[in-house]
Amino acid sequence: MHLERDVVLLITHSGDFFTIDRVAEAVSKRGVQPFRLDTDKFPMTLQLQANLSNYDSNHRLKYGDLSFNTKQVQAVWMRRIWQPDLGKELAPQFQAACSTESLAVLDGFWDSLRGARWVDDLQRISAAENKLRQLRIASEVGLVIPRTLVTNNPQEAREFFHQVKGKMVAKLLRPLSYGMQASSFFMYTSAVKEEDLLDAETLRYCPTVFQEQIPKQQELRAVYVNGNLFVGALDASEYAAYTQDWRRGTKEIFTWQPYQLPDKLIRCLDAFMARFGLVFGAFDFIKTPSGEYVFLEINPTGEWGMLERDLDYPIADAIASALLSTSPKSNTLT
C-alpha cells in the first residue's frame, strides 16, 4: 500500500518499544502518518530504491505492505541507527562487508530527506556525542564539570588518582548499549581503587576516561525538548553505597521524583543546546550535598521513557510538537 499523505519518519530498530510507540501515537493525533523505520531490518526486510539522473531523482522506501516517496517526509525523528541483521544464512566472511555497505547506503539515503525537519540533524548529533567537546562547551556556558583525565598512560592515571585524593571513577566515551535497560555487554561508571592501578598497562590498548568522584545527594536526568525541560531526580543515598551508576541498581530501589532546576542552570542549558544546534538532549547531573549542580554528560538521543512512564511527563508530545513545528527548519541537513 502506498501512503498518500505526509509522513513523519521514526528511525529506530526492531527491539525499540514504548518511547517509539508514544511518539508515533502523538504524531498520529496531529493528523500526520508516522512511519517506523527499523534500521536493523535493512536490507533483509526493508527495501530502499534510489533513481538518480541529470533530470530527476526519486527515492522510495518499502517496509512490509507500506511504501512512500521520501518527498512525502515532513519530519524525521532520529532515535537509533542499528547494525543490519543479516541472518545466519550469509557466510561469515561476507557479513562485515554487507553490513558496512548497507550502512553506507542508509547514510546516503538520508540525503534524500534533507528537506525534512530533523530532530535532530545527524551531523549535530555526531558532534554532540563527543564527550570531551561536551565538557568544554559545558564549562564555557557556565556549567560545573568534574576534573577529568583521558589517558592511555598508566603513570598519568596513578598521578591523577592521588590528585583527587583517591576519589576517582572510570567511564567510557561511547556507550556500548542503548535502551531503557542496558545489555549485559556494558561498562558502567565504576569507582577506581588504588590496587586497580598497580598493573594498568592495559591502558595501552584502550585509553580510559577518569574523573573525580563527585559526592551525590541526587542524580538528575533532565530531558530538553525544544526549550522545554522535563527533570527526574533519584535519591542517591538509596544506591550510592554500592554503585556509581544508577543503571546498575534494581528497579525496586529507584523512585523517580519530579524536579525543578534553578533558572540560572536552565539558562546554561539553553546556551549549551544553542551551541550544538540541538532540539533534543538528555542531560545527566549530580546535585551534591552542598547544593552544587555538576554536569556529567548529554546524550543527544538519550532515554526518557522512564520519566514519561513514572512521572507522566508529556515528553513524546513535546517531541511530536518539535517535529511538526512550523518554525524555520534551522536544524535540517544541508
Automatic annotation (TrEMBL):
Q: Which GO terms describe its molecular function?
A: ribosomal S6-glutamic acid ligase activity
Pfam families in alphabetical order = ATPgraspMvdD
Q: Which domain of life is it from?
A: Bacteria
Q: Name one GO biological process term.
A: SOS response
Q: What cellular component terms from Gene Ontology apply here? A: cytoplasm
Against InterPro entries, the record matches this protein to: ATP_grasp_MvdC, MvdD-like_ATPgrasp
- Cleavable signal peptide: none
UniProt domain MvdD-like pre-ATP grasp: residue ranges: 8-125
For this entry, the protein name equals: MvdC family ATP-grasp ribosomal peptide maturase
Species per Swiss-Prot/TrEMBL record: Atlanticothrix silvestris CENA357
